[in-house]
Design a protein that fits this description.
The chain has 265 residues and is an all-alpha fold. It folds into 2 domains: 4-132, no CATH class; 134-264, Alpha Horseshoe (Serine Threonine Protein Phosphatase 5, Tetratricopeptide repeat). It is 69% helix and 0% strand. It has 13 helices and no strands. Helix 3 (32-48) crosses helix 6 and helix 7 packs antiparallel against helix 8. The longest helix has 34 residues, at 100-133. It is elongated.
Amino acid sequence: MKDYPIEIDDYLSGNMSASEKESFEARLLTDTELSEELKLQQDMQTIYEDQEWVEGNKELLKTTEATQLKTFYQSDEAAALKSTINEVISENRSNSQSKTFWFIGIAASIAVLITVSLFVFKDTNYDELYASYIHLDEIPSLVTRGEDTNKILENAQLLFEEQKYKEATELFTTYHQKEKSIDPLSYIYNGISYVELNKFDKALSQFQLLGDSNTLQAKKANWYKALVYLKQKDKKELIAVLQTIVSDSNAYKYQEAKELLTEID
């Protein structure tokens, strides 16, 4: 077996003389296996050493996923992982004939990658789950055929359907301020509009008004609150409201709440 691990480690740690380094770099031009092993070790070090957490396309740094990855990488949990990895590797380096530290480095890097991957995967799933559980076609229309419909509500619903959520919330707010008798469905439309605008506190206030409306629609309030927390990625509050729903088998969206609880655990 070739001593690639030891050579590469010496090269990356700066333990080669000038002539050894020159010879090593010359071999990289012709030895594909050596070149690939070096690239692998460099990638590993990017994970568990104090190097830049990501390189390359700087536009990637602007994405939500990149921000969350960087936050994780800089967290106390990640720091503890890197410290443990480096300690174990350092201990095994004392035996120059042993390649144990090389394999430990691989295993440790994989462990960090799995941790980070799970972190990102979970976050991605929240978006997918929200998309799969928000069924806008289930919301009854505010426009009733054969009956006079409040023009503000009618126009607000049209704006909602056109995904003009900011304009829709403005009309719903006007309606709520002007009318004494409020159609509880307007709280649902307005609340979802706020969710789509990422104004989660305002969305929750609308669904609280729905729950306090003393109407048949009031029973839907907890489910819509759950959707807010799902969109917000607030697992603690999401679990709490889902547990409230599943405590009553007659609750609105009881079965869906059970499924969602299982999916986020």
